[in-house]
Design a protein that fits this description.
Elements (H helix, E strand, L loop, with lengths): L10 H10 L5 H13 L7 E5 L5 H8 L4 E6 L2 H10 L5 E5 L12 E7 L8 H11 E12 L1 H4 L7 E4 L5 E5 L7 E7 L1 E8 L2 H10 L2 E7 L5 H6 L12 E8 L3
Parallel strand pairs: 1-2, 1-4, 2-3, 4-5
Antiparallel strand pairs: 5-11, 6-7, 8-9, 10-11
The structure holds S-adenosylmethionine.
S-adenosylmethionine (SAM) binds next to strand 2.
């Protein structure tokens, strides 16, 4: 089986990404508030976090009373920081590529993933694996880069400025050309995988999961006050969040 890219173990990438997450950032001000609003009460639940990174969400699930949390990630650097900073007695961190989820046993009440699924090569298979791992009545909640952002070859989508030099429009292309996108983000050669909104929603549905929420979070005025660069994210969607449920019978 072809291996997935593990860019977070690249020293320069890891350093750049870690710096980005310090201080005010898109995750904390735009993506995470929407994800928190859509996360059920996890008390007593078994949770799987795919692409758990350094484990902030795994620790939060444990602190909120989850029975067990398994965080999987492809990056050794991410997991060593998770074990160092976000260790809990009922949280296990496991080095695993999400394309190997077929090898995982067990049933989960909640499968959660924050900003990792745009790295998945085979989204249909990912959804099928997750559907198998979910217990009846279980929930999948995930966020990813929005397809409008992942669309353009080389991730060259960009804002167009008005006469005053302010972002006024967003230009993108290649929307219907699904597949690999290679771009420069901290380092050259970073791989993302673009899928249309239709392909994403259809893959979730065909895996037997019922979507109850499709959310494209817009920045709040408070978020813009804390990070003014977020104002331009009122022009186009930045993230896509999907919540879906496996039938209880
Ligand atoms: C943008 S970070 C988000 C981390 C964490 N979910 C958070 O919100 O803080 C994406 C994470 O997905 C992981 N990842 C990327 N591709 C992966 C794969 N094929 N299998 C498992 N994890 C992967 C990366 O190593 C990284 O930790």
């Amino acid at each position: 089986m072809e291996k997935s890219q593990n860019i977070f173990d690249n020293d320069a990438f890891f350093e750049g990404y870690s710096r980005l997450r310090q201080g005010e950032n898109y995750n904390d001000l735009l993506e995470q508030p929407a994800m928190r609003e859509l996360t059920q009460d996890v008390a007593g639940l078994d949770v799987l976090d795919i692409g758990c990174g350094w484990g902030g969400n795994c620790a939060a699930f444990s602190d909120a009373g989850a029975r067990s949390v398994l965080g999987i990630d492809i990056s050794v650097k991410m997991l060593s920081r998770a074990r160092r900073e976000n260790s809990r007695p009922n949280v296990e961190y496991r080095l695993m590529d999400m394309c190997e989820l077929g090898e995982l046993e067990g049933g989960y009440n909640l499968v959660y993933s924050s900003l990792a699924f745009h790295y998945a090569r085979d989204f249909q298979r990912l959804m099928a694996d997750i559907s198998r791992l979910l217990l009846p009545g279980g929930t999948l909640l995930f966020s990813q880069e929005h397809p409008v952002v992942t669309a353009t070859e080389g991730l060259q989508g960009h804002f167009i400025l008005n006469d005053r030099g302010e972002p006024a429009y967003y230009a993108f292309s290649d929307y219907f050309k699904s597949g690999l996108r290679v771009s420069e983000w901290f380092v050259e050669g970073v791989e993302d995988h673009h899928r249309t909104m239709g392909e994403i929603v259809t893959s979730v549905a065909r895996a037997g999961l019922s979507i109850d929420t499709l959310c494209e979070p817009a920045p709040s005025e408070e978020a813009i006050r804390r990070l003014p660069a977020l104002r331009k994210e009122l022009i186009k969607p930045t993230f896509l969040i999907v919540r879906a449920v496996k039938s209880a019978v």
